[in-house]
Amino acid sequence: MTPSEDPLNSLIHRAERGPAGRGPLAGWSLAVKANIEVAGLPATAATAALADWVPDTDAPLVARLRAAGATIDAIANMHELAFGATNAASVHGPVRNPRDPARAAGGSSGGSAAAVVAGLVDASIGTDTGGSCRIPAALCGCVGFRPTTGRYPSAGMVSLSPTRDTAGPLTRSVADARLLDAVMAADPTEADPVALDRLRIGLPRTPYYADTDPALAAVVERALGRLAAAGAALVDVDLREVEAANARCASQIVLYEAPRELALYLAVRGLAVTLRELVAAVGGAQERAALEAQLGPGAIDAETYRDALVVQRPRLQDLYARAFADARIDALALPTTPVPAPLLEHDVELDLDGRRAPTFLTLIRNTDAPSTAGLPCLSIPAGDTPAGLPVGLELVGPAGTDRRLLRIGEAAEAALSCA
């Protein structure tokens, strides 16, 4: 199948399939998001100014995947410059949801999720700044993992925020995500399997369960009931302070770092385009406006950025650490998104329980804060709404507990699939 024959528009380039290597990923077919460099394949980041950019070397992460035996068979479409949550904006056209092509696949790693769910590849590699692996995983119905920030090498990526960005796998099962994590992190250390009846799971009902689509909320409650039936102790946790702390640093960090990181990428790669030219050519109106604002007098200033990075973000991380310790919980569990997949035309506003709400802020509401804090996060399928739309359950662990969180995810996945 060529990309033009892909009805979901999830892939922008198919590579010649080479011989499988030897290693733990031997025989695996992977798609890699279009902002990660793969030698000889386009790294467009779904934006016009990079339409002809073809790197001649692999990103270190890609090199690890090849060394483990995987073949890189395709480049996955994405939300333009990874600057959105729907994948409706892309120079290659929007990615459609495999469960309902009239709906968004989620972003920014929408092509990576859609390609996995549609069976075009065995797994995909995306990137995640504020939810970009977990949101499309939830909306399309697969597994999406964001590791502790810094766990995977970040060189060779068209990045927005070195503080917040990371690559992450999108897969059909948590076991597959666990295998990819071991390769991507060069960490063969195994965590022991876990039993749900020995776990305490925190439920941040305040604020992350409020103002949620009723059909989606019902699916999440059924999933929590199954975890409880399997023996997990469910503990209410109040994270209002976390949400307030995140508001003081999340967007400030990304908006300050994004233009600088993009300019650095263009300069280091010797690309014949300036930052202003790149921004002017951005096709998405929202995305272009957000970047243009950071090139003018209203941009985030250095003092605001320093406060966000040095004062507010450590405070956010401390609040999370205290929440885990005080409630003695192994992980948090919450809806990955407050709504199921919106219609593609609802890129600016969507319907949230009978009222209009901003699409981007709604989709990232539950995924953004742990991203800012750099915590490991996993979205697993929780079930479908009566309309047949997938719902994701997000699990969040303490910093550095990636391998254990994936084991917790496996146990939760088993309980949900066996119910």
* Rg: 20 Å
Largest sheet composition: 11 strands, mixed
CATH superfamily label: Amidase signature (AS) domain
Q: Number of DSSP helices?
A: 14
Give the helix/strand class.
alpha/beta
* Number of structural domains: 1
Strand content: 15-25%
The percent of residues in helical segments reads 25-40%
Order of the strands making up the biggest sheet: 1-3-2-6-8-7-14-15-11-9-10
**Quaternary organisation of the protein chains:** single chain
CATH class: Alpha Beta
One letter per element, helices H and strands E, the order comes to EEHEEEHEHEEHEHHEHHHHHEEEHHEEH
**Mean pLDDT, nearest integer?**
96
Overall shape: globular
Number of strands: 15
- Gap from first CA to last CA: 36 Å
Q: Specify the CATH architecture.
A: Alpha-Beta Complex
Q: Name the poorly predicted regions.
A: none
Can you describe this structure?
The chain has 14 helices and 15 strands. The chain is an alpha/beta fold. It has a single domain, classed as Amidase signature (AS) domain (Amidase signature (AS) enzymes), CATH 3.90.1300. The chain has an eleven-stranded mixed beta sheet with strand order 1-3-2-6-8-7-14-15-11-9-10, with helices on both faces. It is globular, with a radius of gyration of 20 Å. The two termini are 36 Å apart.
Give the arrangement of secondary structure elements.
Elements lengths: L10 E4 L14 E5 L26 H8 L3 E6 L19 E2 L2 E5 L5 H8 L5 E6 L5 H7 L2 E4 L19 E6 L2 H11 L15 E5 H4 L5 H16 L3 E6 L1 H8 L2 H19 L6 H6 L4 H9 L8 H26 L3 E5 L13 E4 L2 E4 H6 L3 H6 L3 E8 L5 E7 L5 H17 L1
Parallel strand pairs: 2-3, 2-6, 9-10, 9-11
Antiparallel strand pairs: 1-3, 4-5, 6-8, 7-8, 7-14, 11-15, 12-13, 14-15
Helix pairs in contact: 2-3, 4-14, 7-11, 8-11
